Amino acid sequence: MTTEASETTASVASPLRWVGGKRWLIPKLRKLVGETEIAAYHEPFLGGASVFLALGPFSKAHLSDTNVELISAFEAIRDYPTRVANKARAYARDEETYYKVRASIPGGLIESAARFLYLNHTSFNGIYRVNLAGTYNVPFGGERIAHIPTAEQLRAVASRLEQATLKADDFAKCIDRVGAGDLVFLDPPYTVAHNENGFVKYNQRLFSFEDQRRLSKLVDEIKERDAHYILANAAHDSIVELFDKGDSVIKTSRRNSVGGANAIRGSAKELLFTNLETAG
Ligand SMILES: C[S@@+](CC[C@H](N)C(=O)[O-])C[C@H]1O[C@@H](n2cnc3c(N)ncnc32)[C@H](O)[C@@H]1O
Questions:
Q1: pLDDT of residue 206
Q2: Distance 96 CA to ligand 1 centre (A)
Q3: Position in ligand 1 atom list of the atom nearest CA 67
Q4: Is the Cβ–Cβ distance between 231 and 243 less than 8 Å?
Q5: How far does the centroid of ligand 1 lie from the alpha carbon of residue 189, in Å?
Q6: What's the gap in Å between 46 CA and the centre of ligand 1?
Q7: Which of 55, 99, 158, 245 has the lowest CB atom count within 10 Å?
């Protein structure tokens, strides 16, 4: 039940810092979607939700991610935005408090979300990482001024989430809800074949090249249902080969920054695969 949400039609910023976040890609995605009528929107690698929040509002949306803490934080933001913001902003943004909050075991949905939001904004680069026991173990981000979203900002997010379902689930499950005329935005962790590192670690689970193969099957199923897809992925031969569906492939690049002004590590190439009509 959402009682605290405020109405807005303007673009809404993500309440989180998220590795692999696609805020930088939004102008391109907006152009790509253009005036396409979308029956329902799906985002099964939700992360910080920056794309859903920027492209919406949608009359119906299905959002999921395997990160259970992330999904329950969004549920709490949807239902209690003011209480979550007030609690998260009440913690002091210093090293001592950071480690105290990190070591704490939150009591309920609102406290868990406030802790998640606080740690996300005060930790090192906003990375989400847990140890084998499932305990968040990212160090303090240093004495920079962390901006934790205000109650007003979270109410804008909550308003967008009103028409959305949220699920902690593997991406492949999203197909059960996909119908004709829907749009599925896919933003997996990037993994390529024959790479020394071979995988990207998110949460306690690896996103392997086998997962990329499962994702390729999902794209086929989306197409069979006469739905649209946009897939962001690494610009690598193994990926191009796997996702060659006879659709459009668009090159994009960004400054590869995980966060923080000193973390810029040059330019990375990425690809967008889509069956939406592309101009030119
Ligand atoms: C690149 S991030 C998405 C970033 C998001 N587009 C944004 O702008 O913030 C990839 C996300 O996929 C999630 N993930 C990893 N493996 C998954 C799986 N098998 N099914 C669903 N989500 C998964 C991670 O938890 C992470 O949040």
A1: 74
A2: 30
A3: 25
A4: yes
A5: 6
A6: 6
A7: 99
Tokens 């929107």: give the residue: 41
The best mutation among 11, 30, 45 to test binding of ligand 1, ranked by most ligand atoms within 8 Å of the C-beta, falls on: 45
Judge if the beta carbon of residue 62 lies within 6 A of ligand 1: no
Q: What is the mean pLDDT of residues 54-77?
A: 96
Q: Please count the other Cβ atoms lying within 10 Å of the Cβ belonging to residue 92.
A: 12
Structural domain boundaries in the chain: 23-274
**Can you give the pLDDT at residue 267?**
58
Q: What are the pLDDT digits (tens) for 150-177?
A: 999 999 999 999 989 999 999 999 999 9
Per-residue pLDDT, 208? 86
Lowest-pLDDT range of 70-74, 81-85, 149-153, 236-240 = 236-240
Superfamily of domain 23-274: Vaccinia Virus protein VP39 (3.40.50.150)
pTM: 0.90
Mean per-residue pLDDT, 171-193: 93
CA 47 to CA 83: how far, in whole Å?
Answer: 22
For the chain, the C-alpha Rg in angstroms (whole number) is 19
Written as six digits, the tokens of 271 are: 């690809």
Pocket test for ligand 1, best of 17, 185, 190, 202 (most atoms within 8 A of CB): 202
Say how many CA atoms lie within 13 Å of 160 toward its Cβ. Answer: 26
Show the beta-strand stretches assigned E in the chain. 41-43, 61-65, 164-168, 183-186, 200-202, 205-207, 228-234, 248-257, 264-274
Q: What pLDDT is recorded for position 262?
A: 40
